[in-house]
């Protein structure tokens, strides 16, 4: 059987063999281009910016000037030199780079927030490894001058509290211009950046500095929100900020018992939802959470860390959105949040990235079809009607 098939292949005209080879190359190239490039456009093109109150009746010019378009993502976990395999790095970083660059091109956001754990091994990195990780990050998350990128510190970037040092914090702040207690105001909207790793409450040097900055900023914001005719001597010499209630951006979520109440296709797996969270490890402590709520009275809290989606209400009125991981290494269905925000209102919409299982299914189906085509071409796979014809001929001969 093998000798006859090889003879058949040799007898095929050279032109026909080259033509078939060219068709195979085109088929394989088409599958690769779709799965590694076009699929991101097909999926992200379906995402739309949500409307805020009155936004549906605004002209495009009015919307552009008054509504801030923000993309929020978390937990990219760029692999390092210690635990990261080169193939895993290549695959995951290509997926995130294509997703991010496609989202920027299609959605044109004003600002992008990354809520910590940018790196997987920042807490261990040597200066050389850190420089290499930063270089790769800057390539993947490059952006135009029309889009601002704001990065928050996570425990994998500077270490858990017991691993965090002034050197690691300063190293991160130098690269990303991040400071806990920093206020970013865009289009009259106040965003407060929090180093949640430094909210341990044990009086460590980094913790004291961070909390002092947060308290000072809280005082400014509270004074700015008071009515003009409200007399307060403590606010007489305070710099006035936009009166918009702030949005907190941090890595750790505020305290909650578990993810038991979280719903949605990208929430935690059923077997993980009822596992109790550990304070100061999975979530902030109850004390630190109450401090942040008391100091800022935020209208929205955005956090990461858990790698799964969740929405909870604090004090019955303050929503917190936990943003799932942006990396396929942590999830089969990564996503990011699209936010249309004004000084008085906001609207959020989730945008899912391509499911890795579906991309893998496309590759498997294409591989199976490729094998069938090759076997049929070299006549190892006999068409059904030829098989039936041979059976009839043999029967007549008998």
Automatic annotation (TrEMBL):
Cofactor(s) the protein requires to work: Mn(2+)
Keywords: ER-Golgi transport, GPI-anchor biosynthesis, Hydrolase, Manganese, Membrane, Metal-binding, Transmembrane, Transmembrane helix, Transport
Coiled-coil ranges (or none): none
Sequence ranges assigned to domain Calcineurin-like phosphoesterase in this UniProt record: 69-308
Segments crossing the lipid bilayer: 20-43, 360-387
Pfam (any one): Metallophos
Function: Metallophosphoesterase that catalyzes the removal of a side-chain ethanolamine-phosphate (EtNP) from the second mannose of the GPI-anchor protein intermediate. Participates in the glycan remodeling steps of GPI-anchor maturation to allow an efficient transport of GPI-anchor proteins from the endoplasmic reticulum to the Golgi.
Similarity comment: Belongs to the metallophosphoesterase superfamily. MPPE1 family.
Protein name according to UniProt: Metallophosphoesterase 1
Organism encoding this protein: Ploceus nigricollis
């Amino acid at each position: 059987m093998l000798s006859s098939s090889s003879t058949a292949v040799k007898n095929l005209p050279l032109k026909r063999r080259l033509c078939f080879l060219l068709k195979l190359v085109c088929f394989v190239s088409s599958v690769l281009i779709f799965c590694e490039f076009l699929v991101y456009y097909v999926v992200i093109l379906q995402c739309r910016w949500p409307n805020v109150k009155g936004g549906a009746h605004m002209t495009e010019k009015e919307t552009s000037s008054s509504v801030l378009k923000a993309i929020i993502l978390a937990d990219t976990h760029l692999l390092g030199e210690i635990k990261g395999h080169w193939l895993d790095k290549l695959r995951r970083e290509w997926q995130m780079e294509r997703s991010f660059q496609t989202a920027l091109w299609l959605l044109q956001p004003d600002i992008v927030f990354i809520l910590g754990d940018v790196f997987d091994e920042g807490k261990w990195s040597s200066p050389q490894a850190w420089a290499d990780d930063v270089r790769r990050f800057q390539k993947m998350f490059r952006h135009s001058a029309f889009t601002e990128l704001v990065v928050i510190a996570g425990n994998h970037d500077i270490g858990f509290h017991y691993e965090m040092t002034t050197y690691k914090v300063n190293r991160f702040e130098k690269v990303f211009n991040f400071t806990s207690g920093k206020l970013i105001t865009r289009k009259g909207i106040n965003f407060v950046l929090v180093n949640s790793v430094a909210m341990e409450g044990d009086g460590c040097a980094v913790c004291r500095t961070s909390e002092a900055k947060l308290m000072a900023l809280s005082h400014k914001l509270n004074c700015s929100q008071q009515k003009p005719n409200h007399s307060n001597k403590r606010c007489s010499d305070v710099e006035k900020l936009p009166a918009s209630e702030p949005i907190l951006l941090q890595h750790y979520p505020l305290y909650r018992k578990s993810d038991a109440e979280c719903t949605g296709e990208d929430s935690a797996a059923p077997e993980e939802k009822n596992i109790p969270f550990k304070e100061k490890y999975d979530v902030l402590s109850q004390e630190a959470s109450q401090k942040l709520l008391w100091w800022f009275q935020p209208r929205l809290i955005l956090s990461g860390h858990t790698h799964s989606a969740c929405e909870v209400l604090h004090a019955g009125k303050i929503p917190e959105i936990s943003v799932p991981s942006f990396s396929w290494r942590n999830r089969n269905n990564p996503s990011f949040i699209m936010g249309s925000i004004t000084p008085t209102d906001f609207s959020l919409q989730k945008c899912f990235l391509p499911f890795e299982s579906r991309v893998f299914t496309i590759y498997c189906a294409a591989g199976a079809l490729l094998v069938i085509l090759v076997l049929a071409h070299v006549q190892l796979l006999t068409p059904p009607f030829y098989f039936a014809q041979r059976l009839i001929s043999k029967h007549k001969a008998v």
